[in-house]
Amino acid sequence: MTRVRIIGGGLTGILAAFEAHRLGAREIVLEDALDRLGGWSLPRVSHGVELRDGEFAFGPAQDPIRQALEWRGVAFDEVDLHAGAISPSPSGARATWGEGPVLAAEMAPPPSGPAPETLSDILRAYPRAAADPLAHYCQWRLGVWLDQVHASAAPALGLHQVRLVPVSEGAAANVSAPRRGAVPRDGLNGLFSSASRALARLGVEIRLHSLVSPREAAQACADDALVVWAADPMPLFDLATQKAPKPRLIGERVASYVFRARLEAPLPLTVRNYTGEGKVSALRVYQSRGETLVSVECVDEVGDEPLRAEVLRLLAPFARRPMILDACVLTNMRTRFACPSVEAVQRLGRLEAELDHLHQGRFIVAGWESADTDARIGALTERMARSLGPAARISAVA
């Protein structure tokens, strides 16, 4: 079996198509509902400038996702990825360099027993002085009881980067240096355009404006194709033999704003607010076509004047000089589902097992089982290699 049909043209679908070709498949179709590849990662463009409202950086040279894209001609620039955190403390908010919150609390022994299932389980492993402010922050972001949120949501909230320092040292100690990474040389739009051209050169058929139903995808499996569902997995519950309402998702309400700015600071720069106070949860400062832009994520809509004041306050500790915010060039409201509920993860796991059994490994769901992109793509690659069978052994480096 060498026919592969991939539903969803975001980064996961693109990588799945590259991997299918590497594993020996030569009849590959990649389908997406939009008018070009990139999915919801595609930024809007104004006069050639990308207005980004999400993550846009990749890992160092050994990052397998970056390697897969570079191998197919996507160019990257090596950079230091600068990050700052605004953390709560008894004396007020503290700014530190580093990706995760820095909290003054006595070190606790490493947890033992089964792996945590919920965010509440993760927080219970911390001493009270750290667990309470972290719980406040998570509820500020999500607005739900944390025992409803699956533990896999931790990276999306920055909880995999928590740093505890002894109370005697203060919360400003133990800061981290920037990590090495990369940004697409031609921006995110350039990345997806380059990937589209590379797929076409490999003979991958790209079908845009294509809405594929779960039943149509299942029929393709019956016709002996390997189907990779790289789109939203929620519609797949229509295929379950045990009919039940779809599981409840945890939607994080996000208001995004992009400003032109004048700022002297190390770039690209990401600052995350872990205090659970105010409206701004994250700030990303980047350059596009020589312009400096500030992408702001908020937990709710906020007026222009208080938003500007909060942005200036949060960025001030990381800027060499006071910054100036110019025009707001993007306002966007959306609901993000990066923090799955326990129910959704459990039921999706059962559904995947059912589809795997019914279609003998030919229906692969590349959903949000893991918030770790590397782990998710690695698991997808392994399942594709097993499903393609003899075709996967044609060449490991083709």
Question: Can you describe what's shown?
Answer:
By secondary structure, the chain is α/β, with parallel strands linked by helices. It folds into two domains: 3-75 and 186-239 and 340-393, NAD(P)-binding Rossmann-like Domain (Rossmann fold, 3-Layer(aba) Sandwich), CATH 3.40.50.720; 79-181 and 252-336. The protein has ten helices and 17 strands. The strands form four sheets. Strands 5, 6, 9, 12, 13, 14, 15 and 16 form an eight-stranded mixed beta sheet that branches. Helix 1 runs parallel beside helix 6 (187-201) and helix 1 (11-22) runs parallel beside helix 10 (373-388). The radius of gyration is 22 Å and the shape is globular. The protein starts with a strand and ends in a 10-residue tail after the last helix.
Relative helix content: 25-40%
Spatial gap, N to C terminus? 17 Å
Ranges where pLDDT stays below 50 over 5 or more residues in a row are 392-398
Broad structural category? alpha/beta
Q: What are the SSEs and their pairings?
A:
Layout: E1 3-7, H1 11-22, E2 27-31, E3 44-46, E4 49-51, H2 64-71, E5 76-87, E6 94-97, E7 102-104, H3 119-124, H4 128-142, H5 154-157, E8 163-165, E9 179-184, H6 187-201, E10 205-207, H7 214-222, E11 226-229, E12 252-262, E13 269-273, E14 280-288, E15 291-298, H8 304-315, E16 324-336, H9 342-358, E17 363-365, H10 373-388
Parallel strand pairs: 1-2, 1-11, 2-10, 5-13, 7-8, 11-17
Antiparallel strand pairs: 3-4, 5-6, 5-9, 12-15, 12-16, 13-14, 14-15
Helix pairs in contact: 1-6, 1-10
